Each structure stands twice: as structure tokens, then as C-alpha cells.
Amino acid sequence: MTAPSPGERIAAALRRSPLHVDPSLESALPAARRRRVLDELGRQPRPTFVVLVPIIAGGTWQEPEQLAAVVQSRLGRPGVFITLGKYAGDLNARLLPDDLTDDRGMEVRHAALAVSLDPAFRKATLADRLDRTLELLRTGKGEEEYRRQSAALRERSRSRSATARPESAAGGEGGGAGGDGDGAGALGAALGGAAVAAAAVGGLLLWQHRRMAAPVRAQRTAGDALLLERTVFATADRATRDELRAQASAEVIAFGELLDRTDVPGTDPVVRDLLARALDAYSAAGRVLDDARGIPDLAGVLVLVDQGRDALASAGSLAAGGPGIPPEPLCFFNPLHGDAAVRLTWRPPGTRRSLRVRACRDCARAAKDRGTPRYLLDDRGDRPVPYFEAAPETSVWAATGYGQLRSDLIERVLRGDHARRRPR
């Protein structure tokens, strides 16, 4: 007799109880809290199942959506399925099998997302996050709370813009990056890892006609109206830290408002994935803005907004029957330069390994002439260094090249990598 699959085992457990907790997570939900969750599940307006098992890349369950869909199909019952999210501490909620085919599916998703956006739950336990998610689902206030938290994030961004102090100018002309030595340690570590995944969908908001530099963007499509204006980059590269913070805040606000008013049908799985990526990018940009301590972080906010807008624009174009909008990265050496119009092979100083990167025309020309591109500097250590020479374990920007070396920048930020600090 064939042994039951993992999905079948979980479904069998859910037929006995709507709460299933993997043994490895039992300490996160003690017996008393389980009774509380079961009581709450009994009060839900629609059948609701909680499945707490690890979501691990390369493991049995690699995506929350995969887990929920498999378990629901094996269980054979419609309902709300709550699982762990892709990022530490987050929860994922899905209405299956309907999901995004009607407004109820999005309302269920937003109930869990509202808890992720709420600063009060940023360091909360899994049990507390689960209690709050179930409360929002029971009361039907998930959508209302999601909009409230989104508005609060935008208000925090405005407040930061209004109260930020004048600070030092952004970036430099290369500092000590052109010399010998063993710089680019972060790049070396990045190159030593797994092969770079396929590039993630790119961005939208403020910067200066970046798309016009790329031939593939010459023909405007339905989705281009959602792309980030490139004028932002014309000023961002010359901005002081205070001005850049205000600019980043304005872009997060504008992106949130765009998400609120954009109505894209989410029946196609590819479109749904792009919409989810846009929401993830918005959440990631807000988190980085809240925690930003310097120019590299603020540049990262703009990169994340750009990636989110590209995802939203591509979703809009596909939903309208048009083509997907290819992502276009920003300058590897300094994202504040705007569009990466040139592909080049570049060897970091002091290394023997080469990278295939994309850069703005000026930086590409300098690199090809064996000169010094205008690197974005990270000044949080003992001395300013090109951002990509920072230790990858303390700089998500160095570890990913702002998304050019790794395609999982958004995911890394949402799991908290941006908050890992180097000692001052």
C-alpha cells in the first residue's frame, strides 16, 4: 500500500481538527494558545483551517500558495487556509478554491497582509499574529485594517519627510574604490553562491525616462502608464540625504496610492503573481524607509518601488491583452544614476572574477576605460567604501547588487536582511 503524501497527511489531520501544527513549531503555539485558536476557528464566518508547517526553499513546502493549494485539493473542502508566509513571522491567508476570482479572496489576503504592515506586530509572536489575523477575518474588518495600515505607512513617510534633518550629500566619486587591495568582498561571496536566478520583474515610479534608454521600451503599452517616472533620478543623484529621504518618502506614498486605485483583474495566475509581487515590493519599500540610516538604504527604497511598479505595470499590460513589460535594472554602480542602458563585463578591484552587470552610460564608459565609476558609497563603517564592498551579511544591497546579482531582493528585505547592521 502506498504511503500517504505530505499533503494527504495534513488533510487527514484537518478532518479531525481545523488546526495543524508541525512538531517543529509546537513551541510557537503552546497548548493554551492552541485552545484559544481553536475557539476562534469555531467562530469564523466560513470554514477556516490553520496549517503551520515550515516553508523552506528546497523543502517539501517551498511556497505558501503551494501548501495551501495542495492541502485544499486533498481535503476537498472550500474555505480559508492560513499558513506561514514566505518571510519570518508573516502569515499567508487564501480563500480556496476561489482565491482572487472575486473580491472575497482579496479581502482574505489583505487580512493577513494588514498584520504584516502593522508596526505593532513587527516583533510580535506567531501566536499573536495568528490571533489578530483570525480576529480580522471573523469581524470582516481585514480590508478596512489593510487600508488603514497602508494609509498609516504613507503618513509615516510624510512625517519623516517633514521632520528630517539636513545631512551630508549622497555618494561620492569613487573614494578608495579604485585602488588595489581585497575589496569587493561582498561580490566575492555573492559570486561563490548559487547561480544568479532569473531577473525579477522591475519597477515604476519617479525616475527620468529610464525606459527611453532601452529600445525594448520604445513602444509604449497599456502597462507603461504605471511605470515610475525617471525624472526622480535626475535629482536623486545630486540630492542631500535629507532631500533623498523626502524623495523616497514621496515615492512610497505615491506607489501606495497607485495600488489603492489600480483595478487589475487577477484571474490569470501570472497576473496574480505580478500583483502579489507589487504588494510585496510596496511592503518592503516601507520597511526599508522606516529603518533607513543612510544613502544606500534610501536608494534601496527607490529600487524597491521601481521593482514594484514594474510588476504592477506588467500585470496591467498582460490583463489588458498586451505583452509583459520586461524589467530594466538601474545602474549597478549607483542606482541613483537611473537606467542601466549598457551591459558590460566588469572585474571588481582586487579580484580575478568577472561579473556581467548593467550600468548607466557614464559608469559603463569609465569601467571600460579602466577608470573609476561614480560608486555609491556606504559610509557606515570606519571609512566610506563602495556599497558593494560592504560585508554581504550586513548589507542586503551588497549581497544582491540592488537586485542585479540576485533576483530575491524583495524577499530578503521582507525577511529582515536590510536591518542587519554593521557596528558603528
Question: What is this structure, in a nutshell?
Answer:
By secondary structure, the chain is α/β, with parallel strands linked by helices.
Description:
By secondary structure, the chain is an alpha/beta fold. The protein has two domains: 144 residues, Diaminopimelate Epimerase, Chain A, domain 1 (Roll); 235 residues, no CATH class. It is built from 14 helices and eight strands. The protein has a four-stranded mixed sheet, with helices on both faces. The chain has a two-stranded antiparallel ribbon with strand order 5-6. Strands 7-8 form a two-stranded antiparallel ribbon. The termini are far apart. About 14% of the residues have low confidence. Keywords: Membrane, Transmembrane, Transmembrane helix.
The secondary-structure class comes to alpha/beta
Shape: elongated
How many separate structural domains?
2
What share of the residues does DSSP label as strand, in percent? 5-15%
Oligomer: single chain
Arrangement of strands in the largest sheet: 1-2-3-4
Low-confidence runs: 164-223
The N- and C-terminal alpha carbons lie at a distance of: 61 Å
Tell me roughly what share of residues is in helical segments.
40-55%
Helices and strands, in N-to-C order? HEHEHEEHHHHHHHHEEHEEHH
Count helical runs: 14
- What is the residue-averaged pLDDT? 78
Topology, number of strands: 8
Tell me the radius of gyration: 22 Å
Largest sheet: 4 strands, mixed
